[in-house]
Amino acid sequence: MRRLHACLSAAAAVVLAAAGTTALVSANASGATPQDALSNRWYAAAPYLMPLDNDPPDPAAIMDATGLKAFQLAFVLAPAGGGCSPTWGGTAPVSSDTAVKSMIDTIRAKGGDVSVSIGGYGGTKLGQACADAASTAAAYQQVITKYGLHAIDFDLEEPEYENTAAIKNEIGAAKILQQDNPGLYVSVTTAGTADGTGWFGKQMLLEAKAQGFTPNNFSIMPFDGGFSGAASQTSALTDFNSILRSTFGWDEATAYAHEGFSGMNGRSDTGEIFGQSDFQTVLDYATGHHMDRFTFWSLNRDRQCSPPDNGGRTSGTCSSVAQNDWDFARYSVTFAGATPPTGTPTPTPTPTPSSCKPAWNSSTAYTGGTEVSYDQHNWKAKWWTQNEVPGASTWGPWQDEGAC
Is 157 a catalytic residue? Predict the structure, then answer.
């Protein structure tokens, strides 16, 4: 996958109570409007959505079809050219953003809200680029203040979580944000393995313990690691619970209350298949053990590929399994404690394919952000590349932007 200090004036700070949780929100010169917080359960259920890439779906349509209220917007990174300031995807500065804010305004106008995820797979993270925890936190506070956030997700995975200094900055920043923004819902997401999480994930937990930091939850991503269906995922969650208990000295119930699941709907990057029956099994496990979080990557993929490819490839814009639009989002709604609408939703019109970008050429050198077409899909370069075929590798330099 997948993944702050600002002054608040007395007029701009409003203390809100939501489900027994106090949330501090702000309004600032960028135009952020105070927004009532949802219950923490909604932030815990918020699926990931890329607002600027991977053919972003209309969140209002998802809300109408499923009853979903919260979205996990991804990802905030350091600038691709260097520096300690927040951007969307390394290219779009948060300070001048209007596109993501417009999406947030749409969601909030319908009674919903968002969390923002920082990090993810690929790109330079602010924990790597900033000098220390305080400056890392200051960068993230810009995001919280800009959008009046009540929730934030630290997606700490490769390659950042292999960098001891970067993880120290990220955990330190998370602790600062938690202290400076009372009621802020904080999740920490990291890689999952068959035995819970790997060596670097365990080192991250030890760093949190050393700093005295406890988020609302530590979530693992049990996919892309040789998993096979729900049974392997629930086994990993059980093992991760043991890791949390041994690390923090918690009993089983306390560990589950600080544990989360972050799945991948449909075909994973490594070819694993997670269908709706798998999601139901994990959902039953999560609710049965009173876990704190159940989310997935991603809403951009929560629709059937057109034409259906029956699991033949992994796409950022569809699931590669048979489904109706937003079927996987309904599991998030259920975890939040709501009931998805019944009946057959009005089918979403098949979108008109985008026009094709200039054809990819093996001899051309492409810089990050350049768009090309190949095999009737548009692709965006994640970084500099030459003679690397779009779609040839899941972890390659090209991001699939959908059919054209």
Answer: yes
Question: In the structure encoding, which two tokens stand for residue 392, read together?
Answer: 């040839």
Q: How far apart are CA 87 and CA 80, in angstroms?
A: 9
Nearest to 190 by CA among 228, 139, 142, 247: 247
Burial of 61 (0-12, 13-18, 19+ CB in 10 A): middle
Q: Cis omega (within 30 of 0) on the bond before 75? A: yes
Q: How far is 142 from 29, CA to CA, in rounded Å?
A: 12
Cα-atom radius of gyration of the chain, to the nearest Å? 20
Cis link prior to 298 (omega < 30° from 0)? Answer: yes
Which residues lie closer than 8 Å to 187 by C-beta, 6 or more apart?
43, 44, 115, 151, 152, 153, 154, 215, 216, 217, 218, 219, 260, 293
In angstroms, the CA 250 to CA 208 distance is 14
> Taking a C-beta distance cutoff of 8 angstroms, is the pair 379, 360 a contact?
yes
Which string of DSSP letters, residue by residue, matches 42-78? HHHHPPEE-SSSS----HHHHHHHH---EEEEEEEE-
Check 157, 170, 207, 401 and give the catalytic one: 157
Both structure tokens of 52: 């600027």
Tens of pLDDT, residues 9-64: 333 332 333 333 333 433 343 344 457 899 999 999 999 999 999 999 999 999 99
Reference 295, options 331, 322, 271; nearest CA is 331
pTM of the model: 0.80
Task: Return the ∠ at Cα 377 (arms to 274 and 265), rounded to 5°.
Answer: 10
